């Protein structure tokens, strides 16, 4: 059985939702066009490239996935891409902005992350992060609860892969890691997939930890049952689109002394 991880090409095709959110987030950077920026968990690099087109400063994208970094390097030439676990980054006073979209909820050890983040920022530098937050994708989890019992034996040692923190937790964490002028908000977002196929693509691409525990020959059945259960709980709209009730944790703060 081969395990799925990030399939960079599939992610590039199935990440329209994340791209919409990234564009909204980038507008909140209010760049003057000279800043240096680090994009944490840059994935296929398309968002990092958008950032690089908005500044003459150095733009670096880091991601733990070799496949993502290799795809990003092959397409986008302006930013620098580095394969790196965000928990091991060791930049010192290098960036005006640290940016991250749809990535940091994959990192449970936020304390180690924030130590590296603080160190990487220049004096007066700022962070702008958006990640999955408390209550994210509630109906997907309800559909998983309905689907998993028939596959129970494969989920015995399942390790919940996400860290969906709430605003109070993150505010406290930022204060303790010497950030100031902090704004932390949980924001509800309606993620829309144009049809069931697009929904399936998104599930296959970003919910792979749930597929990894299954033998390969059961994965299609599991996905079909999961989708059926989801549609029962959250029916298609009049245009046959699928809506997902996402909650994002948005974080904006300045580096303290
Ligand atoms: C959903 S993708 C988001 C990609 C991109 N930021 C976007 O908005 O399209 C999440 C990315 O986070 C990366 N990631 C997860 N854990 C990481 C870690 N510890 N260090 C660096 N990257 C990580 C994954 O490899 C993946 O490429």
Overall description:
- The chain has 257 residues and is an alpha/beta fold.
- The chain has a single domain (8-255), classed as Rossmann fold.
- The protein has helices spanning 8-13, 16-27, 46-52, 66-75, 110-120, 138-147, 167-176, 196-206, 208-212, 216-233, and strands at 37-40, 59-63, 80-83, 95-101, 121-132, 179-193, 242-255.
- A seven-stranded mixed sheet has the order 3-2-1-4-5-7-6, with helices on both faces.
- Helix 6 (138-147) packs across helix 10.
- It starts with 7 loop residues before the first helix and ends with a strand.
- S-adenosylmethionine binds at residues 6, 15, 18, 22, 41-43, 47, 62-65, 68, 85-87, 101-103, 106-107, 206.
């Amino acid at each position: 059985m081969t395990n799925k991880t990030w399939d960079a090409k599939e992610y590039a095709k199935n990440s329209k939702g994340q791209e919409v959110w990234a564009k909204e987030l980038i507008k909140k950077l209010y760049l003057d066009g000279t800043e240096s920026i680090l994009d944490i968990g840059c994935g296929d690099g398309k968002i990092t490239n958008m950032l690089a087109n908005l500044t003459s400063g150095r733009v670096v994208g880091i991601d733990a996935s070799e496949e993502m970094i290799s795809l990003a390097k092959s397409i986008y030439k302006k930013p620098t891409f580095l394969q790196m676990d965000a928990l091991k980054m060791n930049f010192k006073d290098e960036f005006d902005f640290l940016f991250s979209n749809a990535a940091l909820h994959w990192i449970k050890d936020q304390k180690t992350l924030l130590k590296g983040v603080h160190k990487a920022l220049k004096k007066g530098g700022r962070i702008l992060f958006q990640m999955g937050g408390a209550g994210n994708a509630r109906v997907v989890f309800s559909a998983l609860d309905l689907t998993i019992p028939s596959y129970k034996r494969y989920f015995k040692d399942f390790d919940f892969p996400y860290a969906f923190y709430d605003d109070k937790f993150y505010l406290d964490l930022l204060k303790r890691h010497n950030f100031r002028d902090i704004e932390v908000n949980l924001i509800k977002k309606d993620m829309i997939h144009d049809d069931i196929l697009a929904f399936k693509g998104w599930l296959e691409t970003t919910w792979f930890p749930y597929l990894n525990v299954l033998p390969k020959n059961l994965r299609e059945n599991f996905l079909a049952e999961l989708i059926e259960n989801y549609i029962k709980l959250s029916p298609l709209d009049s245009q046959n689109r699928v809506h997902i009730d996402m909650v994002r944790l948005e974080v904006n703060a300045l580096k303290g002394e």
